Amino acid sequence: MRRGVSVCVVGAGSSYTPELIDGILGQTRDALPVAQLRLTDINPDRLGIMAGFAQRAIAHSGREIAVDSDTDLGRMLKGADFVIAQIRVGGMKARHLDESIPLKYGLLGQETTGPGGMCNALRTIPTMVEIARKVEEISPDAFVLNYTNPSGIVTEAVTKYTQARIIGLCAGIPGVQDSLKRRFASRYPDFKTYAVGLNHFGYVYRMVSGDREVTAEVIDLLDQEEKGRGGSDAGMSMYRLLQAVPLSYVGYFLHRSAAVARRKADATTRAQEVEVIESRILEEAARPETVSKPEALKERGGGGYADITFSVMKAIINDTGEELTANVPNRGTVLGIDDDAVVEVVCEVNRHGARALPVGPIPLAFRGLVQALKAYETLTVEAAMHRDRRLATLALMNHPLVGDLDIIGPLLSEMLEANGLVFIP
């Protein structure tokens, strides 16, 4: 795949699109030979703004990359080598419901986990499966790089119900790994880290220096740092407790009451805040003089989004076999997880895609949480595809943040009605 590469961005009206454009332009032509950028979105106004920004930014850089845009998904998919999916079904209005309704029941309101994350998945999975089937029909050899949330659940649905070549990506665990590398690479030559878990529920559980296992040493150093800052968790640091480095999202599960209290104390939901930020991003991106990513994007979050995207893309294009974290079908990689269920682990990425590296058993310290959450995710996929309320109920029953049938009944009724979702009893 050394010829000029064609990249299609689905959901190109997203406020993250400038991050992608900046990421492309930050790569050399030899490393990332993008020749064509095809942008599509169902919102013509937002699409027009981002297409205009992309054309100006590319022209300003001096790179020769053709930009085309259209609301017609099929036309934009033709000839694509990579399809970056970043859609949000229902927009920020629906995310606000995901975040606000669960709080009424004393549960965390969040866009990728808990009842809100489930409703996001129920809205999104049918649309993403439809998009993936289009890719399968029009550009069957293309790789779909999925950022559509909840990424792991959406990726599992697409792998089970289509033949599209999808890889689920997220900047979360790669960000943790990069942070650890910056801090410890000078102390430990050829420092590598390995992760296990699910999207937004992952842990760096193993660290090596060449052939030498250094996990315990690094955990001890992190534990000492935490103690120096006065932090503790049940009398010990989170690192010492888990013997792993968790993603920040894990805090929602291990500090549940505090997480709910913080959200209840907020005057607005994150969705409402993001809606304001996005309006500023779009306003800035629309200005004729804007040729670099808008300053307001710094407030949006999601840093590292472009880094993992183009690391995976370059590994495929150049057939490098680089080790990168991604969401892929388990296929025996992690013991105790179904083969066709999607897990977030370190993969070898080459021209064939992402192949998960063997993990074995999940460390016992957090095995139960991962397995329970995986059951919730798989049940959510089936609930979305079959529009089945029983399966949605079972999904929330298995979710570690929910699990109370007395709450699930009325909560699910309210959330389905608010989202306009009709499920069979």
Portion of residues in beta strands equals 15-25%
Which parts are unreliable, with pLDDT below 50 for 5 consecutive residues or more? none
Structural class category: alpha/beta
Shape: globular
CATH-derived architecture: Alpha-Beta Complex
* Strand count: 15
Under CATH at level 1, the class stands as Alpha Beta
Specify the oligomeric state: single chain
Main β-sheet description:
6 strands, parallel
Number of domains: 1
Mean pLDDT: 96
Q: Considering the protein shown, what is the CATH homologous superfamily?
A: AglA-like glucosidase
Q: Going across the major beta sheet, what is the strand order?
A: 3-2-1-4-5-6
Individual helix count: 16
State the helical fraction. Answer: 40-55%
Q: Termini distance?
A: 49 Å
Gyration radius from CA atoms, angstroms: 21 Å
> What is the CATH fold-level name?
LDH C-terminal domain-like
Structure report:
The mean pLDDT is 96. The protein has a single domain, classed as AglA-like glucosidase (LDH C-terminal domain-like). α1 (17-25) runs parallel beside α2, α1 (17-25) packs across α13 and α5 packs across α6 (151-161). The longest helix is centred in the N-terminal third of the chain and has 25 residues, at 114-138. It is built from 16 helices and 15 strands. The strands form 4 sheets. Strands 3-2-1-4-5-6 form a 6-stranded parallel beta sheet, sandwiched between helices. Strands 7, 8, 9 and 10 form a 4-stranded antiparallel beta sheet that branches. It has a 3-stranded antiparallel beta sheet with strand order 11-13-14, with helices on one face. The protein is α/β, with parallel strands linked by helices.
